[in-house]
């Protein structure tokens, strides 16, 4: 609704850092996967004077959704279930707001894969935050443990209950993201390692380079780091579910038939 734009006046919008030649050290495989020609590039938004307007619209949508979540929580607070309910808030993907010359999701960098994940309610201490990388696949086993239910052997995620109790506790497994059966991102505490279907790679030091501007995959001194992350790549990719449609760009369109036939 138009009134929600008033929460984010155009003259208060801060644009994210943008590096014009950011793609120079990204392999062709990465550029193919991240191609979203149906979405505007940052250069196009700059040329048309619409970058701030696009960010404003995105923030407005977030504010409107936040208000709707508040209505749900208000209703819960006044219900008989307020004291025995666990709340989990998450998103299915992140979004570039101009970084890497894109205004889109559909890639496996930090901005695309990082999402909010909030646990609240019964037995969970509020107002604490952990920087450990986790995956949404960890939600189910976490809820199973919190609710005192029997473990499900089919769950591949890891319960986060220990992390909820101590936000600094170590987590042995990194966050793994797959985009199509053969494109993977492995996010550990310090690094993000990416391997594409054609074998090309990216490695970012997220402590020194949180914007992912410098691909370190060619550094001889970091090959042991790459090897350690590569161990977490699934050895048997899952085939696409029947009815799945990867019609995002030419790369996905050309590959989805083979992916549907994986054993």
How does this model look, in words?
This protein has 263 residues and is of the alpha+beta class. The chain has one domain (2-133, 174-260): Alkaline Phosphatase, subunit A (3-Layer(aba) Sandwich), CATH 3.40.720.10. Helix content is 29%, strand content 11%. It has 8 helices and 6 strands; from the N terminus they run αααβαβααββββαα. It starts with 27 loop residues before the first helix and ends with a helix. The model has no long low-confidence stretch (mean pLDDT 94).
Q: Going by CATH, what is the homologous superfamily?
A: Alkaline Phosphatase, subunit A
What is the number of helices? 8
Domain module tally = 1
Radius of gyration: 20 Å
Which sheet architecture does the biggest sheet show? 4 strands, antiparallel
Q: Runs with pLDDT <50, length 5+?
A: none
H-E string: HHHEHEHHEEEEHH
User: According to CATH, what is the class?
Assistant: Alpha Beta
CATH topology: Alkaline Phosphatase, subunit A
Total beta strands: 6
- Spatial order of the strands forming the largest sheet: 3-4-5-6
Assign the structural class, choosing from mainly alpha, mainly beta, alpha/beta, alpha+beta, or little secondary structure.
alpha+beta
How far apart are the termini? Answer: 47 Å
Overall mean pLDDT stands at: 94
- Classify the beta-strand content into a percent band: 5-15%
**CATH structural architecture:** 3-Layer(aba) Sandwich
User: Given the C-alpha coordinates, what overall shape results?
Assistant: globular
Considering the chains and any ligands shown, give keywords for the structure:
263 residues; alpha+beta; Alkaline Phosphatase, subunit A; four-stranded antiparallel β-sheet; two-stranded antiparallel ribbon; 29% helix
């Amino acid at each position: 609704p138009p009134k929600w734009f008033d929460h984010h006046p155009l003259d208060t919008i801060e644009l994210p850092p943008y590096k014009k030649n950011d793609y120079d050290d990204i392999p062709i495989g990465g550029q193919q996967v991240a191609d979203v020609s149906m979405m505007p590039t940052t250069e196009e938004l700059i040329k048309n004077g619409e970058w701030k307007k696009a960010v404003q619209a995105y923030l407005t949508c977030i504010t409107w959704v936040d208000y709707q979540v508040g209505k749900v929580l208000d209703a819960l607070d006044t219900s008989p279930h307020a004291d025995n309910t666990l709340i989990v808030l998450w998103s299915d993907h992140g979004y570039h707001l101009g970084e890497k010359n894109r205004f889109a999701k559909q890639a496996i960098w930090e901005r695309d894969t990082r999402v909010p994940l909030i646990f609240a309610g019964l037995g969970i201490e509020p107002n604490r935050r952990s920087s450990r990388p986790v995956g949404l696949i960890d939600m189910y086993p976490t809820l199973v443990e919190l609710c005192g239910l029997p473990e499900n052997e089919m769950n591949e995620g890891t319960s986060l209950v220990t992390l909820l109790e101590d936000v600094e506790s170590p987590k042995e497994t990194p966050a793994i993201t797959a985009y199509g059966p053969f494109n993977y991102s492995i996010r550990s505490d310090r690094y993000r390692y990416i391997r594409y279907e054609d074998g090309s790679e990216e490695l970012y030091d997220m402590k020194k380079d949180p914007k992912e501007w410098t691909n370190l995959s060619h550094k001889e001194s970091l090959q042991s780091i790459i090897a350690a992350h590569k161990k977490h790549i699934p050895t048997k990719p899952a085939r696409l579910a029947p009815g799945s449609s990867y019609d995002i760009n030419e790369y996905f369109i050309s590959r989805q038939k083979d992916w549907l036939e994986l054993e």
